[in-house]
Design a protein that fits this description.
heterodimer, A: Phenylalanyl-tRNA Synthetase, Chain B, domain 1, Phenylalanyl-tRNA Synthetase, Chain B, domain 3, Phenylalanyl-tRNA Synthetase, Chain B, domain 1, 4 domains, B: alpha+beta, 3 domains, seven-stranded mixed sheet, three-stranded antiparallel sheet
Chain lengths: 550, 488
């Protein structure tokens, strides 16, 4: 989700009044995050980058309220190129694609320059994946002395935007704010250490995708521009340039194409074309669940900025070039539904009879939980995320990395792995309850994880702890045996076990048919100390799905 | 009069003034019994019991770490050193919040700078810390004094969840009254004491009276063992779906990127697939996907739509699922070719999901989500809206509204919301939509799938007010014993 600020006054000048704004914005699926000091902050979903531009935003709202009706082939580009950019082979390995256009008679007065810059920046941030996939350069056309070349070299220099002194490319990447922020896009995976740049006959105009040169700086008074887009995907640069071209055309400027001259072919950019979809009228009713008549369908398509006409049993829809998100018919149908209004859709029950069946495991663990509550144990629920210190070290267990589900990168050091046992967290819970009345009895049912031969192993465990001055082995044995009688088949054996978390000689494992299903005993004093516990604690951990009756 | 009452009165007649400890010791009765007797005596005006308020304090959560330095102090020091700090680089929201609250910093154009107040505070003594320090090693009497003097700071510390305070009453002085002196000569009241097995068997109670008890005398406080709050609420949600005829799905928490992202049409260069947002695993690094044909279909759909090469290696990356929609995707495939008469198939899941977050009062790294799908023929948006309305209506949330919204795996997509009368604000409830054809086709079905996802914590917070989302997962005995019931 990207946010962008529009001045209420500017929107009002475009014919969108403040009182109608919230409802309109919501109707097209966006949201006003807040209004402060005459500026409205909009939340724009990532599928609609065209709304990050005030011109596109205005166009969408005015179409929706029926104040403008889309015209056939309003956006087109069948003109002769006004400029040429030669692309050298050297850019292939770093940033292969460029698209550009010339804009004449643009009006960047007032807030318009700010809006244009915000739009292009946000576009690079979101759609352009922080300039990696796409970066945009705006230049003052009148300061350019053609012809233009897109090239990549080891070494070069320019006066970065907002600076007064020339800097070497390498220096810009190391020292300049934008270089530090975006330099890695160029330096990563660039074995030949080439810097892509755009230049005219005299100067470097841009170190791509880091910064433009100060020479072609765009000001509020600038009337003629060169807009260039570079990136790693030909589709992304072409689509985004088309979107920006539509914005200039809508604002009344004249857009002229550029010829991009590769070694073996020449391509004119932008290419503005409508995508045609034939929508079966039936498919709209089938999706929305409301029957809509033919004429209304055309109006609905128009409200969303599409051109539309009836054609037999079909609706022919022309999707304008700025709508990058429309991939197939389903997307067009969504637009029709949005135009119709979600709140007007009457709810309709789903037919058919069905019986809701719970997961077996949930039923089983719920009965185990009821039994434990009956025995006076309160239920705890800890996170599956934990860390090595708590999970292993605090209970005197050895950390074996190969058998642990580990997080590659975590923001905090408390969430570095998935737990292999519940007991450490339950002991921690007791530690957090120091001043509460004894006895303190807790249990938890949940998963623990491990890795065996590269595969994930999830186990359903029940952990039990009891802390009070008279807590002893026999108490926990009674609890374990009650569980085995009530939930298991009752056939089990109890054998000695050595576990460093428990006092030696006071720990046992529970076995069914020769398989271990759990263990219990008195927690060792050095472990109690780790949790700052001052009374004896007895504990048990049982694999509950292994003890069930088969 | 009960025997204990008579003995206490006798003792007081000799001493005039006494204490609880003295009574316990001199008469050899325990505190509970003595309290019970004193209760009765003071009600009948025989003794005067004076009580004083005391405070038990416990420094909890981060409070212990803050004793050294509060995060806002740390922040101010850091800004003080550097002159200013970029907002995006300040990771500690708590520090930012309090530095702002204290008027120590001002925020301008994405940078934080010290105000005059902040510059003065830098390195100076911080009132909150001073009080916390004082409380850390104060005895009961000192605590009382500190409390009276620093009410505001104490309140703040409690609100920040750094300090837990329990008010207690302690008997400071017990004094006999004139009425008590007169009474002290009377004999213990007649009648039988506790009913015993012998009395019942021997029928010795026939024709005799039992001693009268003071029905208002205090009794021991009991704490029944209880279900955890999250468990209680998860079962409310599960039962709601089950009642609506939905069957339960289960799926893995440790998943491949394929089921979490690729199968759901999320492009491979999408920002949520960043290490910053999602828990990718270093062990195991990869999870294999068996169905090669399905992989081929997903690859085709991605490359056609996103116009970038689709890499199987990225789809195999192991991670902790970011939503339970991955479970829904697995079931869409599972029921792709069910017996025709079994449609519509209604399914739900409840499970844990993960976000790579730093944990604070608004954020958790591990959350619960409930997802649902209906697979069938001729399913429409109107059916989806109906299903969601019924679900929320059973939880008592009426008048929900719908607006368009965007989620990469549905088309059309919607968001449900309602106006919360209690909090006087619009609250989002869930995201939903019709699963994209690209996805259902890749999963091998030509059916329509309605789908939705709901965050459980946020829903619970509609019924249960907490200061911090972390309270929902508290596991200390005080909370487990004393939390309120969820009122659905």
């Amino acid at each position: 989700m990207a946010t962008i600020d529009y001045s209420i006054k500017d929107l009002n000048d475009y014919g969108i009044s403040e009182d109608k704004l919230p409802k309109l914005v919501e109707s097209i699926g966006m949201e006003i995050e807040g209004i402060k000091d005459g500026e409205a902050t909009m939340n724009i979903t990532p599928n609609r980058p065209d709304l990050l531009d005030i011109v596109g935003f205005k166009r969408a709202l005015l179409s929706f309220s029926g104040k403008i009706v889309p015209k056939d082939n309003f956006y087109s580009m069948d003109k002769e190129p006004a400029m040429e950019i030669t692309v050298e082979d050297s850019v292939k390995s770093v940033r292969p694609y460029i698209a550009a256009m010339v804009v004449r008679n643009a009006d960047l007065s007032g807030n318009k320059l700010k809006y244009l810059i915000n739009f292009t920046e946000k576009l690079c941030d979101t759609y352009g994946r922080r300039r990696k996939k796409l970066a945009i350069g705006l230049h003052n056309l009148d300061a350019i002395k053609g012809p233009l070349v897109y090239d990549a070299v080891h070494d070069g220099e320019l006066v970065p935007l907002g600076e007064s002194k020339k800097m070497k490319f390498e220096e810009v990447i190391r020292k300049h704010g934008k270089g530090i922020e975006y330099g890695s896009i160029i330096t990563a995976n660039n074995p030949k250490a080439l810097y892509p740049f755009l230049s005219d006959s005299k100067n470097v105009l841009s170190l791509i995708p880091i910064t433009n040169s100060n020479i072609t700086r765009v000001l509020g008074s600038t009337r003629n521009l060169l807009v260039e887009l570079t990136g790693t995907s030909i589709n992304a640069v072409m689509d985004a340039l088309g979107m920006i071209a539509c914005s200039f055309i809508d604002s009344g400027a004249e857009v002229q194409p550029c010829a991009i001259v590769y070694k073996n072919r020449t391509m004119n950019t932008p290419q503005l074309s409508y995508r045609e979809f034939r929508i079966k009228k039936f498919s709209v009713d089938k999706t929305i669940g409301v029957i809509i008549d033919d004429n209304q369908m055309v109006t609905l398509a128009n409200k969303m900025g599409h051109t539309a006409a009836k054609y037999g049993n079909f609706l022919l829809v022309g999707v304008p070039p700025y709508r990058l998100d429309v991939l197939n018919e389903q997307d067009v149908v969504e637009d029709l539904a949005i135009a119709y209004g979600y709140d007007r859709i009457q709810p309709l029950p789903v037919g058919g009879f069905s019986i809701g069946v719970p997961e077996d495991y949930r039923d089983y663990s719920n009965s185990a939980s009821s039994l434990m509550i009956g025995l006076g144990f309160s239920e705890a629920m800890n996170t599956y995320l934990t860390n090595e210190k708590l999970n292993f070290e605090s209970v005197a267990h050895k950390y074996e990395p190969a058998s642990v589900v580990s997080i590659a990168y975590a923001k905090t050091e408390v969430t570095t792995m998935l737990r292999t046992s519940i007991l450490p967290q339950l002991l921690q819970n007791l530690g957090q309850s120091m001043h509460e009345r004894m006895p303190q009895k807790l249990f938890e049912i949940g998963s623990a994880f491990g890795v065996e031969k590269g595969r994930i192993k999830e186990t359903h465990l029940m952990g039990v702890v009891s802390e009070h001055s008279k807590a002893n082995f026999a108490e926990m044995k009674s609890v374990v045996e009650a569980m085995m009688r009530q939930l298991g088949s009752g056939k089990y054996s109890i054998e000695d076990l050595d576990d460093p978390a428990f006092i030696k000689g006071r720990c046992a494992c529970i076995r069914i048919d020769g398989k271990t299903v759990g263990h219990f005993g008195e927690i060792a004093p050095q472990v109690l100390e780790n949790f700052k516990l001052e009374e004896p604690v007895v504990a048990a951990e049982i694999m509950i799905d292994r003890m069930r009756k088969v | 009069m009960h025997e204990h009452e008579t003995r206490i009165l006798k003792l007081l007649k000799e001493k005039r003034i006494s204490s609880l400890e003295d009574i316990e010791e001199s008469l050899g009765i325990d505190a509970d019994a003595a309290m019970w007797a004193l209760d009765g005596l003071s009600k009948s005006g025989a003794v005067k019991v004076s009580k004083i308020k005391t405070y038990g304090v416990e420094i909890v959560n981060e409070g212990k770490d803050y004793l050294k330095l509060f995060p806002e102090e740390e922040l101010v020091r850091s800004i003080g050193r550097k002159g200013q700090e970029k907002l995006s680089e300040i990771k500690d929201n708590v520090a930012l919040l309090w530095a702002k609250k204290n008027n120590w910093i001002e925020l301008r154009e994405g940078y934080a700078k010290l105000t005059k107040v902040g510059a003065a505070a830098n390195g100076a003594e911080y009132a909150q810390r001073k009080v916390l320090e004082g409380l850390a090693d104060a005895d009961e009497d000192k605590v009382g004094i500190l409390f009276e003097k620093n009410k505001a700071e104490v309140d703040t510390l409690v609100k920040r969840g750094l300090l837990r305070v329990k008010e207690r009453e302690r008997i400071s002085r017990i004094e006999i009254t004139d009425a008590g002196t007169k009474l002290s000569g009377t004999k213990p009241e007649g009648g039988m004491g506790e009913l015993t097995r012998e009395m019942i068997l021997s029928k010795s109670w026939v024709g005799k009276d039992f001693k009268k008890y003071d029905v208002n005398a205090s009794s021991e406080m009991l704490y029944p063992a209880r279900q955890h709050m999250m468990h209680e609420f998860i079962d409310v949600v599960r039962n709601t779906w089950l009642n609506m005829g939905f069957s339960e799905m289960e799926g893995p928490i440790v998943e491949s990127a394929f089921w979490v992202f690729d199968a759901l049409f999320s492009p491979q260069d999408h920002p949520t697939r960043d290490m910053q947002d999602t828990f990718f695993l270093s062990n195991p690094k990869q999870i294999d996907i068996e169905d090669v044909e399905m992989l081929g279909r997903v690859k085709k759909a991605h490359e056609a739509a996103w116009k970038e090469k689709w890499q199987e290696s990225l789809a195999k990356q192991a991670l902790l699922r970011t939503h339970t929609t991955s479970v829904s995707a697995r079931y869409i495939k599972k029921f792709a070719n069910a017996v025709e008469s079994s449609y519509p198939i209604k399914l739900f899941s409840v499970g844990r999901v993960y976000r790579n977050e730093s944990i604070d009062y608004k954020h958790l790294a591990e959350l619960y989500q409930t997802d649902g799908i209906i697979i069938g023929n001729n399913l429409t948006f109107a059916n989806l809206i109906d299903t969601l309305k019924r679900f929320y209506s059973q939880l008592g949330i009426e008048d929900i509204k719908f607006k368009p919204s965007y989620f990469p795996f549905v088309e059309p997509g919607l968001e449900a919301y309602y106006y919360d009368e209690k909090r006087k604000c619009t609250t989002e409830l869930c995201g939903a939509g019709i699963i994209r054809k690209e996805i259902t086709t890749a999963m091998g079905t030509n059916k329509t799938v309605l789908a939705w996802g709901i965050g459980i914590e946020r829903l619970l917070m509609h019924f249960f007010e907490v200061d911090s989302i972390t309270d929902l997962y508290r596991n200390d005995l005080w909370w487990l014993r004393n939390r309120k019931k969820i009122e659905v």
